[in-house]
Structures are given as structure tokens and as C-alpha cells.
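A quick aside before the break. I want you to see a complete sequence-to-structure record at least once, exactly as it would be stored in a machine-readable document. Don't worry about memorizing anything.
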Amino acid sequence: MSTALETNKNKERLSVPEHFAKQAAACEALGSPFTGRVCRLLPSLLSRKSAFGTKVLGWSAEEGRDPAADALALRAAGAFHALRRAGSAVLQEVYPPKSADDAALKSALEAAIEAEDAFLTAWLESAPQTNEVSRSSALLGGALHIAEKTRLPLDIYEIGASASLNLSFDRYAYELETPEGMHRRDGALPVTITSRWEGPLPPLGAPLKIGARRGCDLNPLPASDVKARERLLSYIWPDQTARLARIEAALKATAEAGLEADRADAAAWIAEYFSTPGESGRVRLLFHTIVWQYLPQKTKAEIEKIMKGAAEQTSNDAPLAWFSMEADAKDASSAALRLRLWPQGTDTEIGRADFHGRWVRWN
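That is the input. The structure line, written in C-alpha cells, reads:
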């Protein structure tokens, strides 16, 4: 899902310019000064003369629409990146790897709106999906912890799976950088995740075996579909070339593996797989990364109810785990890594992580 740092559903809504300014700062903090510039410049050049400008500027006025909760700035930035990737001549001259000052970038964005108003406006209707594969370093840590505790194979279930890239977290290669040096873990796929690791290393030697791999999303993006891949890549910030290359490699590997998420509501999908007792000799693991903030409150409550019922049916031979990497109120610059494990009934914040997986801080 999105990489927006702001989650203000329970706060006073930001105006469109305030939201774009806050998202610009978030992009800069996450290592994308170019996307930060796009977010800072856009509000000043928008007008109601275009459908795109009318849509963006009127977002707060539409019933039930919140610019921050809907990641409006990232929708808009993704629209322009999609246009550039599709071959827009005017944007090619100002987008990375080329450089341009603010005046030239602003002029190019204005020209793009005039030439491709319908394309840009239509792009706003879909929420951003980045499917950030580097978050897999945190997923690996959580899964290894569960495997060491239970000594059982894991059946994994992901909500908000998007293109299903993180469903292969156990098959990627890893480079975990610590003060003592680099720790490597080989992978079966040609994708390498590099993260700075703070605190104790996860049990890299734990017997991690994955059985079932399943995911769902309201709008799954099949890795084998060219248009779906382009939509996902449009949300990857254009000045982060290493990140783009890593996700392109993960898309290729996922397509070859035939992994594809189900199109389904998260609560209904979880009910399908967690309303009955688990299979003996296996762990059922539900996980999600930067998804919770986008779910309606009713859906969250239903998921909590389903998982509470599932927890009551667990045993030492059929454990249940719930791992999440989600924004919280404690620290707006990072995500909490929370692990709930039954039948023990433990509920622990086992660490925190950068929203893009650049670093993990393990407790």
C-alpha cells in the first residue's frame, strides 16, 4: 500500500495545500527530494481550468474524502510519473535521471496537465500501491521469530497484498548491515533486500518452512500484467533508481512464480481462512504492512473479532500468529512491528522499521 507517513483520520483534516506540504516533507525524509519538490510545487500551479486541478483542489469538499487519508499527493505524483514512464516528452526533460530547476519543473508539470488532463484526472481514482518489497526484511525477522518459537511450518496470509511481492519474503536474499558487519542470508530468487539492522539479529538459522501462500487486496495488481506492473511502478519515486530496480526484479520473480492475490474484502477473506481451527502441525500467520490505516473502522473491528475467535481455537500443535508493520502514534517517522502469538496470548512490539524497509530496529 501507500508510503504516506500521515494518518490523521481521527484528527482535524488538513487542507489540500497543507497535505501536499506535509507529504513533501515525508518524501524528503524517505530519501526522495524529487518527489518532495513535485508535491511542494503542485498546489501553486493547479487551477479549476483543468479537470485535474478541479479534482485535486476540490478533494476536501467531496463527502467522505480526506486528502491525507486518501494519500492524494501520492496519487497525483504517481499520475505524473506514470505519464513520464509512458513517454511524455515534456516530462522526460525534467524527470530523473535528468535535472531541472523548480521553474522548469513547474512549467513541465503545467504543460503535462494541459496536454494530458484526462489521463492525470483518471489516475487520481486509485489509491497508491507501492508493495514495497524491502519491508520483507521486517517480515523475515517476524517469521524467523515465530519459527524458532514454534518449530513448525508456517502457512502465510497477507491482506493488502497488492502485487503479492512480499508473499515471497522467505525466498529473497538479504544483506543485514550491523555495527559488527554485514550478515547475509541466501535466497532462491534473484532479489536482494539490503537493510540496516539495529539491535539483536533475528534467528537466521531457525528452520523457516512456508507451506501455503495466500494474499488478498481490494485491487490486486497481477505481476504478470503489463498495465498492472506499470501502475505499481508509477508510485515508486523516480529518483530512487535502486528501489525501482529491486521492485522490477521482484515483479519478474513473482510473475514467474505465478503468485497472484485474491480480489476480496480483507475481513471476508480472513473469515474464510481463520474462522475454523487450524491444521495440526502448522502455524497460521496473518500479516500486513502499511495497510491498517486505509481500512474502514468497521472492517478493522470485524478482523479483530475474527482473530479473537481464531485465537480461542488454537493449541500448541496449531498456533496462530498475527504480525503487522503499521504506523502508530508513538513515532510518525517509523512503523511499529507488532507480533501477537497464540495459544501463549502474547502481544509484543518486537521492533520498529523505516517505512521503506531501509532499517529495522529489533527489540
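Two observations worth writing down. DSSP finds twelve helices and eleven strands in the chain. The first helix runs from residue 16 to 29. We'll return to this after the break.
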